[in-house]
Amino acid sequence: MSFTNNVNGTSSTETLDSPFIKAIVQQFRGQDSYGTYRNWSDELLLKPFIVSKQKKREISVEGEVDPMTQARIMAFYRAVAACIEKETGLLSQVVIDLSHEGFGWALIFSGRLLLVAKTLRDAHRFGFDSLEKLAEEGEKFVQSAVDLAKRFPEVGRI
Amino acid sequence: MSFTNNVNGTSSTETLDSPFIKAIVQQFRGQDSYGTYRNWSDELLLKPFIVSKQKKREISVEGEVDPMTQARIMAFYRAVAACIEKETGLLSQVVIDLSHEGFGWALIFSGRLLLVAKTLRDAHRFGFDSLEKLAEEGEKFVQSAVDLAKRFPEVGRI
Prior knowledge:
The structure is a homodimer.
Chain A: H1 12-16, H2 19-30, H3 42-46, H4 53-58, H5 67-88, E1 93-98, E2 104-110, E3 113-120, H6 131-151, H7 153-156
Antiparallel strand pairs in A: 1-2, 2-3
Helix pairs in contact in A: 2-5, 5-6
């Protein structure tokens, strides 16, 4: 992973400090009972989330989605949920429903309020252009969920 | 299936006319492109939904949930969604998320409103004591969803 500045002038080092990126790293470190990732840097942990357009084209969308890809999708949305909790105090459930063809839903809900409802397709190719893009996408979900939670607090607390 | 009256004095014939039971039958007939069920009576179609307590105990909860059982769970919640639509005009999505261990969620949502959020466990044993019970359980979901949709119309139409 390169540490050169991107077009916006944000370096990867700065991105690594973003709350969403920290939350996603925490998803791995928090469940690392065997210490597998103990000696891995955050960059190394996050590397599989970065999938170039070229690379995506090379990944077949046939058959079952790879378990490691499924785990990354789960980690992404769990990190979104963790950030939502931090900002709103709402505990939420994360449900990933994936068919064998890589189609499905990523849902995050609290009470009867759906904070995130994202259709998934070609989930085999889940990934982001860059670390910045990963942070940006995650934070977009968090922000829109937080807005919704503030707009309909009663539904989120049913 | 017997046609004797149950304790409430409702006969199975009357139950077969209930809106929920009709909706569940419709789930099968509507998707029966090959005419497999054309000559089946409604009772015969619904029979696998009736699982006695004794029978449930005999079904192992190990491994994958049988595809036919999964199809019945889907048909049940799709029928709930169809009845909700009839009463509220809200189109909804049905998501069934089942782990290999038969645990998971049945979710029905419209806009950002979760009309049904039911945890599933031992899904291998999905079934009801009687046709009356099947109708009763289905209608309970519909009623509570309709109440919710009326309470938070704005969230259901996002």
